[in-house]
């Protein structure tokens, strides 16, 4: 990839924007091969006496 300095100069992004983009991209790559599972089910509420 390109350096942060290159991205900043040519795309006009500041350091914070570049960091956020890297974080989002990293999260997507982290979960790319993970399948979706069933959603959790809340436990039944017990009545308080």
How would you characterize the overall build of this protein?
The protein has a domain at 1-31. Helices cover 49% and strands 0% of the residues. The chain is mostly helical.
Describe the structure concisely for a colleague:
The chain is mainly α.
Give the terminus-to-terminus CA distance: 62 Å
Content of β-strand: under 5%
H-E order: HH
Tally the beta strands. Answer: 0
Which residues form runs of ≥5 with pLDDT under 50? Answer: none
Structural class: mainly alpha
What is the approximate shape?
A: elongated
Can you tag this structure with a few keywords?
single chain, 49 residues, mainly alpha, elongated
Q: Layout of SSEs?
A:
Blueprint: H1 4-11, H2 15-30
